[in-house]
Amino acid sequence: MSTNSRPLNVLWLMSDQHSSRALGCYGNTIVQTPRLDRLAGEGVTFEHAYCSYPVCVPARFTMLTGRYPHHHGSVGNRTPLPLRERTAAHHFSQAGYATAFLGKMHPVDAQTHGFDYYVDMGHYYDYLGPKTRVFTEAMGADDSGSGSPWLTMYFERDRSPWVDPKAPRQLLELNPPEVLDEPDHFESFIARETIRFLSEYRDEPLFTVVSFLKPHNPFAPPREYDTYRPEDMPDVPVIPGDLERVPRQARPKPYPGAGTPDGDAWQRRFMAKYYGNVTHLDACVGRVLDALEALGLAENTLVLYTTDHGDMQNEHGLRAKFNFFEPSANIPLIARLPGRIPAGQRTAALVDQADFAPTLLEACGVDLAARSQPLDGASFLPVLHDPSQPGKEFAFGEFALDTGRPFYMRRDARWKYIYYTAPEPPAMGEQVAAAKPAEELYEPEADPGEMRNLAGDPAYSAVVAEQRAKLLAYVEAQGAPLAPFVPAVPLEPD
Question: What global pTM score does this model have?
Answer without folding.
Answer: 0.91
